[in-house]
Amino acid sequence: MGGLDLSFFNWDVLSKFVLKGFFFSIQLTAVATIGGIIFGTLLALMRLSGKKILMYPATFYVNGMRSIPLVMVILWFFLLMPTIIGRPIGAELSAVITFIAFEAAYFSEIMRAGIQSIPRGQVYAGQAMGMTYAQNMKLVILPQAFRNMLPVLLTQTIILFQDTSLVYAIGAYDLLKGFSTAGKIYGRPEEAYLLAAIVYFALCFSLSYVVKKLQLKIAIIR
Amino acid sequence: MDWQVFLNDDGSGRTYLQWMFDAWGWTLAVAGCSWVVAMVVGSLMGVLRTLPNSPWLVRLANAWVELFRNIPLLVQIFLWYFVLPKIFPAMQAVPGFTLVVFALGFFTSSRIAEQVRAGIQALPKGQRYAGMAVGFTTMQTYRYVILPMAFRIIFPPLTSESMNLLKNSSVAFAVSISELTMFAMQAQEETSRGVEVYLAVTALYAVSAFAVNRVMAFVEKKMQIPGFIVATGTGGGH
């Protein structure tokens, strides 16, 4: 490696700078995935409800979120959140709220495809049993939709994890920030970025490998 | 709301409005050049992944896709901008714009390669055999039989990848490319009129994304093969 010296990096640096950021990235990914799936499913149900009063706002929200860059959405929330809440909030909390709101739009598209992939007969079967719309959704359709879409949901989660690095725009302390801070302090920014790339790659590559294996395991219910 | 702010001088003799349109130009330039890189490299890698008798080329292209798909775009931009010039001093002369174009182009190429591979493998096997039966070489089979079909059927996912690329160009702010997101951050700081500035920038992104969508839809209509629709790839990606 011409001109690179990775020797500055040891357990000390890792525990002092990187771990804190790593935990935040993982937390952000987990919270945004769970929140995003919950709100995304709600949005998907709104779009499929057939009631205009629910369909239009949900469609507008999803398409709106999907047509602007995530960085801009991060900036928007960081700008407006203090005004809405009435007091300043930290970059980390702002990031969490942003990611839930933003990822909900993407998860909603996945859930919508999942719900639409359920054969109509399943819906009729639920109705024939005398189930209400809510029961039918909860007991028949959504469980199957989740199962069908699990690989895609997980793939989206990996993408989400990569996207968390964009909180760089508002200076939240994530995994990448941890590396770049260590790099600044030790005067080795290039090495720090290279190590960050290796860590992200190792995590995302192994996760996508697991998802691939899972995809082969999950039989499509027919 | 005070939209007058766009008529103020930004301190260098141009108004914020002019600056914003310059920034829009940079956004479109980054996205446009990256699109060319992504399409060329992505198509090549996608084709390599489907070659019948070249296991090493297939492995190479698969490795390419995995490498550029599993590192966040922002980190990849830093790699091009900081790490590579440090390893290869000759690269220090390359302008930042070019580095970002390659970073964004290669990042997107892994996604395009995935779509191209899916499109080729979605074709009926008989198409390839037909090409062989007429005595085409592998090269000719791809050139005259497989690719003209494959590219037409993957148009919808290519459209969404193109829109993703436009949105992803915003990450170039991190290495001070003077594009829309960079403008939004700086103008917000200088004028304290964040809402107006962000609204204008958001509108320009939305307009650009819509334009890309329309152009692709127009070309798609012109090139459609009746009766051939391929399921779009798995969702996701930004």
UniProtKB/TrEMBL annotation, chain A:
Q: Which InterPro entries match?
A: AA_ABC_transptr_permease_3TM (IPR010065), ArtM/GltK/GlnP/TcyL/YhdX-like (IPR043429), MetI-like (IPR000515), MetI-like_sf (IPR035906)
UniProt-recorded Gene Ontology molecular function terms = transmembrane transporter activity
Specify the superkingdom: Bacteria
Q: Which parts of the sequence belong to the ABC transmembrane type-1 domain?
A: 22-211
- Alphabetized UniProt keyword annotations: Amino-acid transport, Cell membrane, Membrane, Transmembrane, Transmembrane helix, Transport
Q: Name one GO biological process term.
A: amino acid transport
GO cellular component labels: ATP-binding cassette (ABC) transporter complex
Keyword Phosphoprotein appears in the UniProt entry: no
Alphabetical list of Pfam families matching this protein: BPD_transp_1
What membrane topology does the annotation report for this chain?
Multi-pass membrane protein
Primary localisation category: membrane
Membrane-spanning regions, if any?
22-46, 67-85, 91-108, 152-173, 193-211
* Coiled coil spans: none
- Compartments it resides in: Cell inner membrane; Cell membrane
Question: What Gene3D superfamilies has UniProt attached to this entry?
Answer: MetI-like
Subunit structure and binding partners: The complex is composed of two ATP-binding proteins (GltL), two transmembrane proteins (GltJ and GltK) and a solute-binding protein (GltI).
**Record family assignment:** Belongs to the binding-protein-dependent transport system permease family. HisMQ subfamily.
Protein task: Part of the ABC transporter complex GltIJKL involved in glutamate and aspartate uptake. Probably responsible for the translocation of the substrate across the membrane.
Name the UniProt record assigns to this protein: Glutamate/aspartate import permease protein GltK
- This protein's species is Rhodoferax koreensis
Higher taxonomy:
Bacteria, Pseudomonadati, Pseudomonadota, Betaproteobacteria, Burkholderiales
TrEMBL record, chain B:
Q: Which Gene3D superfamilies match?
A: MetI-like (1.10.3720.10)
Q: Name one GO biological process term.
A: amino acid transport
Q: Name one GO molecular function term.
A: transmembrane transporter activity
The places in or outside the cell where this protein is found are: Cell inner membrane; Cell membrane
**Which Pfam family would be a valid example here?**
BPD_transp_1
Keyword flag ATP-binding? no
Q: How does it sit in the membrane?
A: Multi-pass membrane protein
Asked if the keyword Iron-sulfur belongs to this entry, the reply reads: no
Query: What range does the record give for the signal peptide?
Result: none
Keyword set, alphabetical order: Cell membrane, Membrane, Transmembrane, Transmembrane helix, Transport
* GO CC entries: ATP-binding cassette (ABC) transporter complex
Q: Which InterPro entries match?
A: AA_ABC_transptr_permease_3TM (IPR010065), ArtM/GltK/GlnP/TcyL/YhdX-like (IPR043429), MetI-like (IPR000515), MetI-like_sf (IPR035906)
Q: Taxonomically, which superkingdom?
A: Bacteria
Question: So what family is this one in?
Answer: Belongs to the binding-protein-dependent transport system permease family. HisMQ subfamily.
UniProt-recorded name of the protein: Glutamate ABC transporter permease
